[in-house]
Amino acid sequence: MGAESDLSGQNESRPVSLETGQGRNSSEGLPPSPPRKIIHIDMDAFYASVEQRDDPTLRGKPVAVGGSRERGVVAAASYEARQYGVRSAMASVTAKRRCPDLIFVKPRFEVYKAISQEIRAIFADYTPLIEPLSLDEAYLDVTENLKGIASATQIAEEIRKTIREATSLTASAGVSYNKFLAKLASDHRKPDGLFVVTPAMGPAFVETLPIGRFHGVGPATARKMQALGIETGKDLRNCSLAFLTERFGKAGSYYYGISRGIDERPVRANRIRKSVGAENTFFEDLYRFEAMAEALKPIIAKVWRHAETSGVRGRTVTLKVKFADFRQITRSQSSRDPIASIEALEEASLSLLGPILPVEKGVRLLGVTLSSLSPVAEKGSGASETQFSLPF
């Protein structure tokens, strides 16, 4: 793909400039500065694509990285598998039921990290302002870039081309004047595509989107919004700041801004994470230990996947429990040494869950967080790095 596209669906072969529309600082009474030029790069089905690249027999077939036929959780799925509804964090049994021909492949995180570092080096040829989100995606601020290229779209095209030549893998890119819109744009032409949202397009682009497509609006929040009659970006924009703050707390101001295409968050280079965590809100309240233990498995798998891909381990495990009446508690335990396996993380999480039972009110949400992080020592190094950073 790779051609830019406007909202009418017409292809455009020339670069789209972001030097239009209202700049930053205007709401503060200061002279407007030029809009930022932000690129969001997202590798296409990264883990699964690496496996298909390295094993030609897997190409064109539905592949799940992680899990197994009988147990476990899918870490990533190829596009062929996604056509059957297979998704990451899905129980392997469910994935196999949806796609009987699904092929399970063991993850090779060291390989993924090495490729991610190659891609990160490509980014660094253009800008030092790189904010990695995971091994397979990152934000780049190219407002002022190392090659003096005026068009952010041209930079995105060059990066995608170089990634393909260097790794034989495809990447999708979104280009816009803020992080929120750049991330939405990168998903708009997947796989192997590029989409640009200019300042003039931003508000109209947002208002047509279903609320579930908004980055930062999870399934539980989407259901809450829908119950309030908020189905699209336009519906969200029609809500007052007071209304959103009253119902969604501090996140209300974020929702108010993004519904108008506004997101002032800067790209933060060398971002250091203090913890990795995941949680899930359930459609039905849980009461039994067995049901909660089963519900924790995909949550724990997601946390461990973050730790693996980030090259970190943690000493503190925190269990978050929210009850049907919205009362929330947390329970934590720390060990002298970092947790070394997903089995150990599961054991620690269940040991925190046991003492809170039985419960009078059902449990509507469970979450697990791993903190007190430290980098994993490279094999044979005898010591670990002193600074944690994501390699992508």
From TrEMBL:
Cofactor(s) required for function per UniProt: Mg(2+)
Keywords of this entry:
Cytoplasm, DNA damage, DNA repair, DNA replication, DNA-binding, DNA-directed DNA polymerase, Magnesium, Metal-binding, Mutator protein, Nucleotidyltransferase, Transferase
EC category: transferase
List the GO terms this entry assigns under cellular component, sorted alphabetically.
cytosol
| Ranges of Polar residues composition bias in the record | 7-28
Q: Which residues form the UmuC domain?
A: 38-218
Which residues are responsible for catalysis?
E137
List, alphabetically, the Gene3D superfamilies matched.
3.30.70.270, 3.40.1170.60, 5' to 3' exonuclease, C-terminal subdomain, DNA polymerase, Y-family, little finger domain
Quote the catalytic activity from the record: DNA(n) + a 2'-deoxyribonucleoside 5'-triphosphate = DNA(n+1) + diphosphate
Q: Where in the cell is it found?
A: Cytoplasm
- PANTHER family reported in the protein's UniProt record: DNA POLYMERASE KAPPA, DNA REPAIR POLYMERASE UMUC / TRANSFERASE FAMILY MEMBER
Q: How does it assemble?
A: Monomer.
Q: What does this protein do?
A: Poorly processive, error-prone DNA polymerase involved in untargeted mutagenesis. Copies undamaged DNA at stalled replication forks, which arise in vivo from mismatched or misaligned primer ends. These misaligned primers can be extended by PolIV. Exhibits no 3'-5' exonuclease (proofreading) activity. May be involved in translesional synthesis, in conjunction with the beta clamp from PolIII.
Put simply, this protein is called: DNA polymerase IV
Gene name linked to the record: dinB
